[in-house]
Amino acid sequence: MKDIIILGANGFGREVLQWIKDINAVKPTWNIKGFLDDNLNALEGYPCDYRLLGTIKDWSPSENEEFVFAIASPKVKELLASILKSKGAKFAHVVHPTSIIGEFCKIGEGLVVTPRAKISPNVKIGNFVTILGCGIGHDAEIGDFTTICGNCAINGHCKLGERVFVATSAVVAPSRRIGDDAYIAMGSMVMTHVKSNTKVMGNPAKRIDF
């Protein structure tokens, strides 16, 4: 059985810990070792049955260890993945047992899928993607390091670029293209294509600066 280490020990880290426990309750999959976080006080004041092992930047992966991101920021995921993979780190897929992944999907490395997400058939998912309890329509494409928050709807044939962040309860209309490093604010209704490095908000979503 592989060891698993959670990258990030804040609230999201403790959520990922719970989901790994849920997976292990259905089928023993990992030996949970604990957390890595560059903030060594991240667990202070929170009851938790696993400890913070050290910092991400100083950790040296071992052959039996797998890692999972509990970090939402696409750019931080990209940076840390590069650092850890250069040291030989391997990343697990953490998919909650209440979630659904359809047939004929293509999935990259380090996928995290939280409870009650639904990923339809023929979806293409890149590396280090985080899908937080939302719906992904058929034939959609999700680029590397992208994070899609809870209660979002990414409709069929959409294409999201790399490092996209889709905040809670946003909806992207079918067949829309979202460029690299785009940010979609919470509750937005995206009816048009979104250019790279653009932030949008509203219903219908429009470009904003903040």
Structural features, described:
The protein has helices spanning 11-26, 74-86; strands at residues 2-7, 30-36, 52-54, 65-69, 94-95, 100-101, 106-107, 112-113, 118-119, 124-125, 130-131, 135-136, 141-142, 147-148, 153-154, 159-160, 165-166, 171-172, 177-178, 183-184, 189-190, 199-202, 205-208. It is an alpha/beta fold and 210 residues long. The protein folds into two domains: 2-92, 3-Layer(aba) Sandwich (Rossmann fold), CATH 3.40.50; 95-202, UDP N-Acetylglucosamine Acyltransferase, domain 1, CATH 2.160.10. The strands form four sheets. An eight-stranded mixed sheet has the order 5-8-11-14-17-20-22-23, with helices on one face. A six-stranded parallel sheet has the order 6-9-12-15-18-21, with no helix packed on it. A five-stranded parallel sheet has the order 7-10-13-16-19, with no helix packed on it. Helix 1 (11-26) links the parallel strand 1 and strand 2. The longest helix is centred in the N-terminal third of the chain and has 16 residues, at 11-26. It is globular, with a radius of gyration of 17 Å. The model has no long low-confidence stretch (mean pLDDT 97).
